[in-house]
Amino acid sequence: MSGQGGQDAKFFQRGKIQEFRAELEAAETKDKKFTKRKTVLKKIVANITMGNDMSPLFTDVVQCLGTPLLEIKKMVYLFLVCYGRQKADQLHLVIESFLQDCNDRNPLVRALAIRTMSYIPTPVVIEALTDQLRHCLRDRDPYVRKTAAICVAKLYAADPRKAEKGGFVEMLRDLLLDSNATVVANAVAALSEIGDRQDGVIFKLNLTVANKLLTALGESSEWGTIYILDSLLRYVPEKHEDAEMIAERVIVQLNHANSAVVLTAIKILLYLMNYMDNRKLMEYICRKMGPPLGEFSFLSPCEVQSSHIIIVTLLSSGPEVQYVALRNILLIIQRRPAVLKNDVKVFFCKYNDPIYVKLAKLEIMYRLAREENAREVLAELQEYASEVDIDFVRKAVRSIGRLAIKVQPAADACIQALLDLIDTKVSYVVQEAVIVIKDVFRRYPGKYEGIIPTLCQHLDLLDEPESKAAMIWIIGQFANRIDNADELMDDLTYTFLEEPTEVQLALLTAAVKLFIYKPHSDTTKALVHKVLKWTTEEVDNPDLRDRGFMYWRMLAINPTVAGEIVLAEKPAITTDADRMDRGALDQLLLHTGTLGSIYHKNPEVCCVDYSA
Amino acid sequence: MISGFFIFNQKGEVLISRLYRTDLKRSIADVFRIQVVSNSDVRSPIITLGSTSFFHVRANNLYIVAVTKCNANAALVFEFCYRFITIAKSYFGKVDEEAVKNNFVLIYELIDEIIDFGYPQNSEADTLKTYITTESVVSSSIAAEESSKITTQATGSTNWRRGDVKYKKNEAFVDVVETVNLSMSAKGTILRADVDGHIMMRAYLSGTPECKFGLNDKLVIDKSERGASDAVELDDCRFHQCVRLDEFDSDRTISFVPPDGEFELMRYRSTTNVKLPLKVMPTVTEIGTTQVSYVVTVKTNFNNKLSATNVVVRIPTPLNTTSVDCKVALGKAKYVPAENVVVWKQVSSFAVSLLPYSCVPPVTRIPRIQGGQEVTFSGTAQLTSTTHRQVWARPPIDVDFQVLMFTASGLIVRFLKVFEKSNYHSVKWVRYLTKASGTYQIRVSGRLFFNQYHVEYGWLTSHFLMKF
After folding, report:
1. Which ipTM was obtained for this model?
2. A575 to chain B nearest CA, in Å?
3. What is this structure's pTM?
4. Which keywords does this Swiss-Prot/TrEMBL entry list (chain A) (predicted)?
5. Which of the residues A286, A383, A446, B31 has an alpha carbon 20 to 30 A from that of B235?
6. Contact at CB, A223 and B121, closer than 8 angstroms
């Protein structure tokens, strides 16, 4: 190959329409090898790239179509794809040339012509295309057929009525039985796209077609494999055996080098397992896949251990794909927390992992934490808590707290770690620690209150609403154990009117609690009075005002009952709250590998295609 | 599916912009420029704004970007971006701004071919080169027959190989390249030790050769009931698309028709019985508040016929280091203030030996580290007192190296057989290389992060000894 020979960088310069027009005119004479035209066209393409509007040159550029040079033709076609829709009234100038190419002896030229035409969805071009497309779908060359298949999807996007009336959807269905795997794969892709449209025809597979597609699977390219695998979601097995037979043929794809193939295969296997009955096969599939194992509770933990964890291998791919895999693993382990429990080490961060990989690993780590590995996980989290990236550090600190809440035997060590972190006096670390410690107090009442004095020493470091509110909650809740609670509260309320609502709410409740604990102290009386007066008279926020009135009346009517209500026992805190709803999870697992599975949101919510 | 494909340079200038669907406007590039290129803190390779998602991969100074407007298969989009980079490398030798600008017309041709309406199509560089070339082609000069050969090839079941390959000498080179990932805590516990293996093949074989490949994989050996003494356990393996996955699944044979030239045949992972080629034993001691002393010993852990080359040990120093005096018996060690590390290199005789003998520099030919050998670095870092606390990430000690003819996993190629119609004789070569680059890390840690000096120095040290 001539390889690195390109010398086109010099064309990357802004030019004027007039100049290009003149140059094109000049090129009409004395341009034997068409080098002049080639040069001008390259300049024009470069200018399109840079965002300059080259559409005024439409008629001039179209003139070059007569040049028998494929390179020039391709550049003109690119120009047409860019500006065709804008210049719909002049497109009739090029139809003739398109039609000629559609009937060229060279299959590459035929395919190029229909591919380009279908990129210009204007009535004139579509009209010309429909006839040609019909021939091309039956072309003897597979390359033309595979291009034509995608053209049908484009045609459908532009004019669904025409595509349906013209019988193109049926022709696409016929292509599913084509002898060439690439053609089959593209027909599947096109039909799936059409089937996904709300107004589109329904695309479902029956066993015969599914079987046919599976045969093509062995011969198609990696991308074709993905389109075919994806389409299997449209097949609803009627018998266990059918699902099992298909699964057996999909399993082998788990060893594919392309991680998109692997993730799509996992998705299909997960789907098919809903219809399967053969325990042995299911166990085998699970062992091959690893993580989705948890779908089946009849498997003992030792089987989990011996699994070949395909999905973990995806972590040796590029960081972007790792990220996709990690977000999916997070879904899978939420569905079955027992899964991957012996593999927490795989998710330890490397120093040079990109931040998004680190954050995704961090979220998985604490979820895989159990009594047996809590020490290791904690040691890692402590390590991360001293890194540089603030967001990462905060999440690490938060994870330490969650670990304490999740794994009771590790709670002591976690609290010690949090105290060590507070000792660093790094503002954001301290704030994050205070926030999680509040939850730890609720999880283990009566166990760790001894550390409150340490927390109180760092009151000045708290400048964010969430941490401040957490600290105020702690002061209020344990006002009976903090000797100088009234002093602290007095200081904190000093700036009451400037605080954000979150903090004001916390202050209000804490002041009431303080008063209930120490009803006879003059300071607390004055304090609660002051706060209630502010909330009911000076603050505009209705929530705050309502709550103020409520407390005021409760205290006025019966302080003892008020005390019972305000200091009532709180429901226990668990980490289950961060787990996703089962139905939503199952739904998301059917979108394995897609954007929805990364954002953990139903695809209809997170990325709707409004144009469809 | 993919609605648009872009390439940006570091400044955010558009070098390539191609829309595949009418749901996007060209100006979408500005959004990416603002959100990603000019954003100094990009925290995800995917950014979704409304219904538009931007997927980006960095390659040298470029951003390779795909834009979608649907719930796209994210893994597919990234795999496609990686593939584009591979193709570009194969065409232009390198992927950077210069290469893209110099070949932008060709790139437009390529991306018109490898994505249709957002669906990735045949993207095998070898086949693409038969009809998308850097030379100008006159339409009529491609004979129709020639073209149908190409199209059959591009859509066929072995679309990665041309049928008409001819070599005078039929050779196949197999390189087993293993990257060791090690993460060791300051206390010497192995947090993570595993091997990412790649089997690269360079096939220079005529015709349509049928290859069979065998390893000392435990599962294979179990099957044939042979002694499993030298067997390795592979956690998982994934293959190039040329390998017949159904055959691998049924009887674990790796059989395939290889692409012509270089390709990655197989990728695997091993986590059991990983043989760590180098032991690193650091002792870091804080002397008062103004000095930190280091003793780092590296010991090779393999047969003395082998040796480690290209060894580079990077020892991080506190941010307020002013100087480090380095003592080494082997190699050269130097404090690099800009990176806050001491770089200790074994000036590699491997690299040197590639030069003709006459060019060998006469002065420093420091030998490689032989198997069983032990080398030590000792040094003392002088610190300035500072009241300004700087956050220091405390990077781990990082060791890069290469060991030829050694596999950390223990993997061995048992056989490679080539069958071809014409029954030619072929020569097969196998090489093994175990390496680490940025993946072999020993943490320098400390509980002393919380000690009393911390506020003053922002750094911590501790005594520790590494155990293997």
Report:
1. 0.89
2. 26
3. 0.83
4. Membrane, Protein transport, Transport
5. A383
6. yes
